[in-house]
Amino acid sequence: MALLSFSTRANRRARPQRGVIVLSAALIAAYGASTFWSMQRTHDQALRDAGARLESMARSAATSTARSLFETDAMLSGIEQIVATVLPTPALDGASLRTVLEQFNNQSLAVRDILILDASGMVVNRANVGDSGARSYRDGGFFTAHRPGAMPGLFIGDLARDPVDGAWTIMLSRPLMRDGVRLGVIAAEVPVANFTEFYDSITADSDIRIALLLDNGRLAAGRSDPGAAIGGTSAAAQAVSAAAAHNQAGLIETRADAGGSAWCCAAFAPLPLVR
User: What is the rounded distance in angstroms from the CA atom of residue 130 to the CA atom of residue 258?
Assistant: First the structure.
């Protein structure tokens, strides 16, 4: 009987202790859940802030890049008008036209050289006469884009290395017209290093990288995943191209490197780099 009675009293004392333990566990679980959701909200807000910053940088880079291309297009259009009106009779290889090319080239910070190609694709005049001798671009994309029957307008070519120093450049070209007759093509050689320097100034003192990708995935300017060189294919190219096809701008997450990176793509459709 004593043993039974002891056991009963012990059970009565144990019940409140279990209640205290259960209540304490419930409080700890509630506090843990509250802390988790608070940390999750803080984490989500940090990601939104970082995403907004990335998208702002991408839009700034896209706007400035488009502005630079538009300014070069305006320069080429201006030279075409001079050829059509002010210099209607001199030959395309004349000294007067070379003077005009030199003046425009010296005023532009983005352009390295301005070329005049005749109807066969041969360079007959240029701003930097000392760069190289006569050269044919008859098979160059920026020349063949303006063959008879093609719509007149700006064409932005693919990446190419300069034959003199090997620097990466792109060619912007327009048909050269006079009295409705196609005389040839006028083209501006633009070093992509100009864009890289500008992108670096935007991302100074940060780990953010801005890259300009061509439609074929090649890195045209800036810096993408570590180890990717200008002219190479970025690891993020496929994901960025797919996102840019459906959105003018946005934030996407790709596995561009071992740690994963967030890329913001901003597309400026009026001037695709490859047509």
Answer: 46
**Strand 261-266, strand 249-254: pairing:** antiparallel
31-53 burial, b at 16+ Cβ within 10 Å, e below that, comes to: eeeeeeeeeeeeeeeeeeeebee
Query: Residue 129: CB partners within 8 Å, gap ≥ 6?
Result: 98
Helix residue spans in the chain (DSSP H): 2-81, 95-107, 141-144, 193-202, 237-244
Which residue numbers in the chain have pLDDT < 70? Answer: 1-38, 40, 43-51, 131-133, 224-227, 248-275
Question: For residue range 14-54, what is the model confidence (pLDDT) as tens digits?
Answer: 455 555 555 555 655 555 566 666 676 775 666 666 667 77
Helix, strand, coil percent values for the chain (each to nearest 5): 45, 25, 35
Structure tokens at 169: 């450049």
Please report, for residues 72, 118, 155, 166, 206, the alpha-carbon distance to residue 124 in angstroms, rounded to integers and kept in the order given: 21, 7, 20, 22, 46
Is the domain 67-191 a CATH 3.40.50.2300 member?
no
- Sequence spans of domains, the chain: 49-66+194-266, 67-191
**Cβ–Cβ under 8 Å, residues 92 and 80:** no
d(CA 228, CA 201): 19
